[in-house]
Specification:
13-stranded mixed β-sheet; alpha/beta; 33% helix; two-stranded antiparallel ribbon; Rossmann fold
Length: 480
């Protein structure tokens, strides 16, 4: 199996991220075998929870119909998202959250869901740059009302991530090829997936303005198109916080998040209290973030005597930094929030999204797995918000949910099923009423929202042109 060969190649090569973690991973595998011996393969039907106070949405009585009816969000989900009521059966050789999560990082996805993107660079008012990857490449020629899927990737992922491509390959294929015929744009964080760093600022779990400004641009470019939000891991946290901050003014008509980390402080503490959490997952995330900083060290430390330069040097000097160590030194300082946080714990408390669920005012679906080794705490009650649907599977790991495929030793994604059903339902069946977001205007070439003069964006050309969706920046782990 390619997965097994790839895992051991990485583990045994001293120069790689996992080179010094062989013993730790062997321990996890031994533990997994013990779990497997007691496993009975019982069906895993997701537990999907709704608030007791219903929310009503307007839907078409039939496809393409002009007749509209009002039904509860619960009734709509039960009829249009059938995957949430069918079992997830993991591949027999990926029988727990550890193996599912590891496969999401080390599995070979280069031959599936191949996508070509057209990249545009957005320059923000603070001088920063975002890489927006559009697909299909003829997206500007589609009908004005064609839905747009807006994707926020994980910690150091990007448009190349397999979990992103798994959804977009189907949803953005032409209808005659059994696709949805939608458009999509992946918002690559500053410095990720080849996006240049043009200011001494990165991104963080609480910085929502980069998403907000990207939505200004998309709304101005496609004013008739409904914008459907999808977020994974760290990107899920950013998406959730954006929806909560905007409330009824959200430019996104719906949101779907996968493996959102929710209570960052509590989940960090639980990671540090487990052997695999402290020595495998935390260090994998820390090393991947270190590689992002290393790739852009020249820009971030341009001035030799600044605090930024000292912090970059401190990060690069660490052999295998944990994620919370990188957060303490760097993300609290340049994660997009001013003034900087005093500690990583203060950053986690502020950035956590579980406490803002009650402020969301668009239909919102969250999917987590109970055996996710990174996200151990999930707010299953959805804060009692009728717009929020919380779904929890027993298995699936972190950005995993792999089922056995028809080919021996390979697996296919289960999670794309409910995500695609959600996107199709809100792209085709729901009637989106009223204006989304405050009015936009242009000031000195920057697209801004009326009443928000401090943020805005403008396109700065197509320098990147067309790029392959399977191209990954060296040293990054897309599974996190």
């Amino acid at each position: 199996m390619f997965f097994c060969n790839r895992m051991f190649d990485l583990l045994l090569e001293p120069s790689t991220l996992f080179g010094d973690l062989l013993g730790c991973l062997v321990s996890v595998v031994v533990l997994s075998i013990g779990v497997f011996l007691s496993w009975r393969g019982s069906p895993d039907i997701p537990r999907t929870l709704f608030a007791t106070s219903p929310v009503y949405i307007s839907v078409r009585k039939s496809k393409g119909s002009l007749s509209v009816e009002r039904i509860t969000l619960r009734d709509f989900v039960e009829s249009k998202i059938p995957s949430l009521y069918l079992p997830f059966v993991p591949a027999w050789w990926l029988f727990n959250g550890h193996l599912q999560s590891i496969y999401s990082v080390l599995g070979d996805f280069s031959k599936v869901d191949n996508i070509v993107y057209h990249r545009k660079h957005l320059r923000l008012m603070d001088g920063g740059t975002l890489g927006l990857d559009f697909t299909p490449t003829n997206y500007e020629n589609l009908k004005p009302e064609t839905p747009i899927i807006v994707v926020m990737h994980g910690l150091t992922g990007g448009s190349f991530a397999s979990y992103v491509r798994a959804v977009l390959a189907r949803s953005c294929s032409p209808v005659e090829q059994n696709g949805f015929g939608y458009r999509a744009v992946v918002i690559n964080f500053r410095g990720c997936a080849g996006t240049p760093i043009t200011t001494p600022q990165l991104y963080s779990a609480c910085h929502t303005d980069d998403l907000r400004q990207s939505l200004f641009y998309l709304s101005a470019m496609f004013p008739k198109a409904p914008l459907l939000g999808v977020g994974y891991s760290l990107g899920a946290n950013v998406l959730t916080r954006y929806l909560a901050e905007e409330g009824g003014n959200s430019r996104l008509v719906s949101g779907c998040v996968v493996n959102c980390p929710w209570d960052l402080k509590q989940n960090n503490e639980k990671l540090l209290n487990t052997f695999a959490g402290r020595y495998i997952y935390h260090r994998a995330m820390g090393k991947s973030m270190q590689n992002v900083i290393r790739h852009h060290a020249g820009v971030l430390s341009k001035s030799p005597d600044t605090l930024m330069t000292k912090r970059v040097a401190a990060i690069l000097a660490m052999k295998y930094p944990r994620g919370d160590e990188v957060d303490r030194i760097m993300m609290t300082f340049v994660g997009g929030t001013l003034p900087p946080f005093e500690s990583a714990e203060a950053y986690y408390v502020c950035a956590s999204s579980h406490k803002v669920l009650g402020d969301i005012r668009v239909p919102f679906l969250s999917i987590n797995s109970a055996d996710d080794p990174i996200v151990r705490t999930v707010p299953e009650d959805g804060a009692g918000n009728g717009y929020v649907v919380m779904s929890l599977t027993a298995g699936g790991g972190h950005l995993g949910w792999f089922e056995a495929s028809d080919r021996l030793g390979e697996a296919r994604s289960w999670i794309k099923k409910p995500v695609l059903e959600w996107l199709r339902a809100f792209g085709e069946d729901v009637v989106h009423e009223g204006q989304r977001g405050r009015p936009l205007h242009e000031v000195n070439g920057f697209v801004k929202e009326v009443g928000r003069d401090n943020i805005g964006c403008k396109e700065v050309g197509d320098e990147a042109g067309y790029i392959s969706g399977t191209r990954c920046q060296e040293g990054l782990l897309s599974g996190f």
